[in-house]
Amino acid sequence: MNHFTLGEWADFVWRLQDPSVTAQMQQHLDESCRKCSRIVRSWHHLFDFGSKEGLHSPPDRALRSVRGYYGLLKPGGRGSRVATMARLLFDSLLEPVSVGIRSSQLSPRHLVYSAGDVLIDLRLEHRSGRVYLVGQAQPHAANRQVAGIDVLALKRTQKVAQTTCIRFGEFQFDLESEEDEGFFIVRKGPKLIVIPLPGLRSLRGNGSKS
């Protein structure tokens, strides 16, 4: 018994064969060829999987974050920088509220990130439609200096504010709240530490530079 090739069965399943060839292949299957039947079932499974792939798409916010992150890298040329996405270590919003504590006042949101040899401690507080961010960049090594490190706030890839870490790595921003994510950047020479901010629109830095 002559069998058809994998490629021919793929065209059969995708309905790309000539009608006369399709008829011959269908007759071959009707003659109970187990080997070719298994191949056809495999191609059908793959075809079904591929046809459903387009139904699953990431949310727009995730796509904006990824495009913005890679837009910061700007590969090639002398101006290239090495960017590291910070890893979230702690988020107080995910912590359970203590038993017996009920308050209409929202507590500041506490976030801790790690990137390379730096820890970034952030507190976000909502007041009258604004968000106040106070942060501190802390190197793991005690003898490392963080004063003078640039801190930038971006909306996607556009810089909207900039400030500088003071003596112990402290910095702060005055932020206007919105659902869209922005980016918060710590810049150490040629290295960038990228932190996606939760729910921010325009950002104005305290002690900002144009």
What's the short story on this structure?
The chain is built from four helices and eleven strands, in the order H-H-H-H-E-E-E-E-E-E-E-E-E-E-E.
SSE layout:
Elements: H1 6-13, H2 19-30, H3 34-53, H4 60-73, E1 82-85, E2 87-91, E3 109-115, E4 118-127, E5 130-139, E6 150-155, E7 158-164, E8 170-177, E9 182-188, E10 191-197, E11 200-205
Parallel strand pairs: 1-10
Antiparallel strand pairs: 2-3, 3-4, 4-5, 5-8, 6-7, 6-9, 8-11, 9-10
Helix pairs in contact: 1-3
What does this structure look like?
The chain has 210 residues and is α+β, with helices and mostly antiparallel strands. 26% of the residues lie in helices and 37% in strands. The protein contains four helices and eleven strands; from the N terminus they run ααααβββββββββββ. Strands 2-3-4-5-8-11 form a six-stranded antiparallel beta sheet, with no helix packed on it. It has a five-stranded mixed beta sheet with strand order 1-10-9-6-7, with helices on one face. A hairpin with a 2-residue loop joins strand 4 (118-127) and strand 5 (130-139). Helix 1 (6-13) packs across helix 3. It is elongated and about 80 Å long. The model is unreliable at 206-210 (pLDDT under 50).
